[in-house]
Design a protein that fits this description.
Order of helices and strands: HHHHHHHEEEEEEEEHEEHHHHHHHHHHH
Strand order of the largest sheet: 1-4-5-8
Number of strands: 10
Shape: globular
Radius of gyration: 24 Å
Length: 597
């Protein structure tokens, strides 16, 4: 059952660098249907009434509580949004999945558990399982009767997953695969019932569905972690583990297709959880700032504290725009898939993979945004932020893992630039013609450019400049290194940073534009202020990354020429961000939480 409100034309992944979008072409939280809002309310109430009261018990690894909560989530339909109706699920859209993830994130320990179960623990079977496998496992996973987990990483191959040492050999009678090896850092391992395990059959990377009751399967001791202590993380040991041949997931040798596509989905959900977690942390920071007194007044009245609160709120606003814009595009692409067709599974995979760049952007951006928010929350709490008794300390510890799992942020930065260049080289994305066109424009000298009509003209111009700067830097780098740019990780990372900020800036502007069109400019003053604050930060990051790239690929007169071009492309009048942040801070302090009202 699809619930997305805005019917859109399919938008190609990565095309945001080359094409200008209108506000009516993107999905934002303002487009939530009544059903979306009801599901969000259900998830919010579940988190507040069921999860939060049991935080302390879960922090001390009372996993009986965790399993009970997973079952309750299943009963409420919070674990089955992406499971087909034919197998006991609700078969809702990705927007719904993101909304639930967002609200579940009141406590990171349980959110990690729930995400591991409903995402990477269940979706491999949804997208790649046989009918028999789906019938056997999905109804119980959806209901929370059994718990899922995903076993990809190993001690010697974390991000380099295809270099795994786990091996699988077909038994002489052909009835079983015998698995040997060890998997590390497996979320939910301490109490999960079903594991998607990756191993090599010869040199063919393959996925298997492994039940904890299978002979030769065992679970190691719990890891003592810095954060997310309320989740279970253990190694699993495969010692001549007998897995029925019918439990091969997908095809022999096609495990990488499963691994990478499932991680794409996991990344957008992680981004949604980061937004939800940041919202909770900001609320705690505001509450503390409003009651903590220093020098005769509450610290919420201090300009530098208000500046922090405003930056946090602007980040959350932009994060919402990023996440829901992306899942909205995914929903449009998935809605076009003929679910009854013979190529349904393949078409579904292609629809998800189309937005690999955007999913990696959400993961990197969201994990770094929530890290900023929890760090500033600790700072606002001062010494109390360093004490376990206060919520700032746990949030700070819990957030750190987000930059590591679902692919490290370094790996995801390489994915962003690598995928864009790969699609450009294959002709799927006309990136190279766009770079050539920009270079021709640059050589022709300054021009007045095309007039922009409608609201938020200056903001949209800034987004256009961000795109040109990104293309300019990418063009200069590819001109020097050609195909060998793949070996220049620092440059690939800097280009990724520019791409990430461009997508975030445009998402913020498009959301503000949509609000202006529905409510009018005066009523949209707060979203506009948040957008302008974020644009100011984004342009600073893009200009710095562009200088880094140009300085690495040019020298002498060429360097001076390219820096002059860079300055011309980046030139703009700054917004009064002090005034804007005062407006934002005033509103969130008054309401005691993140708000757009």
């Amino acid at each position: 059952m699809a619930t997305t409100a805005v019917a859109q034309t399919k938008i190609s992944g990565g095309s945001f660098l080359l094409e200008d979008r209108r506000s009516d072409e993107v999905f934002t939280p303002e487009d939530f249907t009544e059903q979306h809002q009801l599901i969000g309310q259900t998830a919010e109430e579940f988190a507040v009434n069921e999860i939060v009261p049991h935080i302390e018990k879960m922090e001390h690894k009372d996993f009986s509580i965790t399993r009970e909560l997973l079952k309750k989530a299943g009963e409420l339909g919070l674990s089955s949004a992406e499971v087909p109706e034919a197998y006991g699920g609700l078969e809702m859209d990705k927007v719904t999945a993101a909304i639930i993830a967002d609200h579940i994130a009141k406590y990171a320990g349980f959110a990690t558990t729930w995400g591991g179960h409903t995402g990477i623990g269940t979706l491999p079977i949804v997208y790649f399982g046989t009918d028999e496998q789906k019938k056997k496992y999905l109804p119980r996973l959806a209901a929370g009767e059994i718990i899922g987990a995903y076993a990809l990483s190993e001690a010697s191959s974390g991000s380099d997953a295809l270099n795994c040492r786990a091996r699988a050999e077909l038994s002489k009678d052909g009835k079983h695969y015998i698995l040997n090896g060890e998997k590390m850092w497996i979320t939910n391992a301490g109490f999960a019932d079903l594991f998607t395990v990756f191993a090599k059959v010869g040199d063919k990377f393959t996925a298997f569905l492994v039940e904890k009751t299978f002979s030769g399967f065992s679970v190691g001791a719990e890891e003592h972690k810095m954060g997310i202590r309320g989740s279970s993380t253990c190694p699993i040991i495969l010692n001549d583990c007998k897995v029925p041949a019918e439990n091969v997931l997908g095809e022999i040798g096609k495990g990488h297709v499963i691994a990478f596509n499932i991680l794409n989905v996991g990344r957008f959900k992680l981004g949604a959880m980061c937004v939800g977690g940041a919202r909770v942390s900001l609320e705690n920071a505001i509450g503390y700032a409003k009651q903590r007194k220093a020098f005769g007044k509450v610290i919420a009245d201090f300009g530098l504290v208000r500046e922090k609160l405003a930056n946090m709120a602007a980040g959350i606003y932009t994060g919402e725009a990023l996440v829901y814009r992306t899942v909205g595009m995914m929903d449009v692409a998935l809605a076009a898939v003929d679910k009854s067709g013979s190529d349904a599974a393949k078409d579904t995979r292609k629809a998800i993979e189309e937005y690999a760049v955007e999913c990696s952007i959400i993961k990197v951006w969201g994990s770094e945004m929530v890290d900023f928010v929890v760090d500033e929350t600790v700072q606002i709490y001062g010494g109390y932020g360093f004490v376990e008794e206060y919520p700032a300390e746990r949030a700070y510890r819990d957030a750190r893992i987000n930059r590591i799992f679902e692919g490290t942020n370094e790996i995801n930065r390489l994915i962003i630039t690598g995928f864009l260049l790969k699609r450009a080289m294959s002709g799927q994305l006309p990136l190279m013609p766009a770079i050539k066109k920009l270079m021709d424009e640059v050589l022709a000298g300054p021009s007045l450019g095309d007039a922009i009509e409608g609201p938020l003209v200056e903001e949209r111009k800034l987004v256009g400049q961000a795109k040109k700067l990104s293309l300019f830097a990418a063009g200069a780098a590819t001109q020097k290194y050609m195909q060998a740019i793949q070996d220049q990780q620092e440059i690939m990372g800097a280009i990724a940073d520019m791409v990430i900020e461009t997508y975030a800036m445009e998402s913020a502007v498009l959301r503000a534009w949509k609000i202006v069109e529905s409510k009018g400019e005066s009523a949209a003053s707060l979203p506009i202020a948040m957008t302008r604050v974020y644009l100011s930060q984004g342009m600073e990051k893009i200009e710095a990354a562009a200088k880094k790239v140009i300085a690495a690929v040019a020298d002498g007169d060429m360097l001076r020429t390219q820096l002059a071009i860079l300055r011309r492309l980046a030139k703009h009048e700054p917004f009064n961000t002090i005034e804007l942040r005062q407006l934002i801070a005033g509103k969130v302090i008054e309401r005691g939480k993140y708000t757009l009202a």
